[in-house]
Amino acid sequence: MPIRVNLDRVLLQRRMSLTELADRVGVTIANLSILKTGKARAVRFSTLSALCRELDCQPGDLLIYEPGPDDVGDDDLD
Amino acid sequence: MRALGPGSVSSFLKIILDVVFFALWIGIGAVCLMMLAAVLFSFNPELIENMSIRTGGGTQIDAGGPVLLGGLAAAGLYLAGVLVIVERLRRIFSTLTAGDPFHPENVRRLRVIGLVLAGLEIGRYVIYGLGAWALPDAAISQPEFSPTAWFSVLVVFVLAEVFREGARLRREAELTI
Asked: CB-CB: which of A32, A41, A77 is closest to B176?
């Protein structure tokens, strides 16, 4: 997946733990871990806006596009 | 009335399948016992020579030891095939009862059911062929091509693909944060 989630860096800048963010956003720690480790297939706009609200950042601060050899189309997801 | 989940139609069907599953085991046990008896009686050929098999068409066939054993083996294989189908259906209905129809394992289970259904249908022709070869004088009714059976096989394979797509969508949903 060429989209990388920069949650670690933003959390470090805000000096916020994953547990605290999970509490504030209303997402389980397990799901945030999936997002943080890049295993997530999709992010809901509602989740993204909650993350941006609580971390006081823009979606672009959280998501980075890095084209590479694993840049697959939607049809190749399985 | 709900179709999925505890106390639903699927849980009722699961109970029926459980009963059929154990009845099939009893049937297979009975066939095995009869095969064992046929083998034991084969040591005394006079006993088996007196036996006869009545076919569906009303034809009477004098059954020698090998014919009787072959018939019983065919019946046992048929029951074993049905047992495999019922066992897979039980597992599928367990997931339906748990409210999780698109369990990834259900795809493989449906494919197995389709393959066994096709195998049973082909087995029907094979057994007829073997019967006609072993008993050339017996008027065994020729098995007719059954469009319903082959239609069922195709429907099961299509359903397996539908479940595969469902399982993929479920995984997508699980990984959507």
From this structure: A41
- Name the token pair of B34: 């009869």
Write the DSSP assignment of B94-136 as a string of letters: HHHHTT-TT-THHHHHHHHHHHHHHHHHHHHHHHHHHHHHH-T
Inform me whether the C-beta atom of residue A35 falls under 8 Å from chain B C-beta atoms. yes
Q: Are B8 and B97 in contact (CB under 8 A)?
A: yes
Tell me, yes or no, whether B1 lies in a domain. Answer: no
ipTM value, please give it: 0.70
How many Cβ atoms are within 10 Å of A60's Cβ, its own excluded? 10
Residue B2 lies in a domain: no
What domains, with CATH codes, occur in chain A?
A: 3-67 (1.10.260.40)
**Distance of alpha carbon B113 from alpha carbon B88, whole angstroms:** 7
What residues of chain B, 88 to 117, have a C-beta less than 8 Å from chain A? Answer: none
Tokens matching residue A68:
């590479």
Mean pLDDT of B14-28: 94
